[in-house]
Amino acid sequence: MQWRQLLRALHRLEDGLLAVLLSALVLLATLQIFLRIGFDQSLSFADPIARALVLWVGLLGALAATREGKHISLDVLSSHLSGWQARLAHAISGLVGAIVCAVLGWYGLELVALERESSAYLVPGVPTWVPQLILPFAFFAMSLRFGLSAALGKKAAE
Fold this sequence. Notes:
Helix content: over 70%
Largest sheet: 2 strands, antiparallel
Structural class: mainly alpha
């Protein structure tokens, strides 16, 4: 029972963070449009922040999709299979998804490490590698979810 409550709290946290970041992205873009059209001005930090927010919203959205089993998948075989064959196909596809996401997470870590060596900043005081931390985090979390789904034979959120 405690694990289910912990998972529900984690899912609410993910959804809340996703909602806050998406709202911030929409508000920032709206403010930029208003300033450019109305005052022929813009915020110098808005475009790099918006790019970082798009990355975070996209990857957190993908993470939520894997949680709900609503990610992109090829469903050619599963509609024609039943019983143990369907479970095996699900396990294999989950395992492949876990491996692909783990590899992407590893390369995300390498990208963050490379960016840490540079002296580039997203905005003053925020190095470019900080917003890129979402890459390894999201891909490793998706790998875990795919792996759990493959092992348990159902959505990892259940």
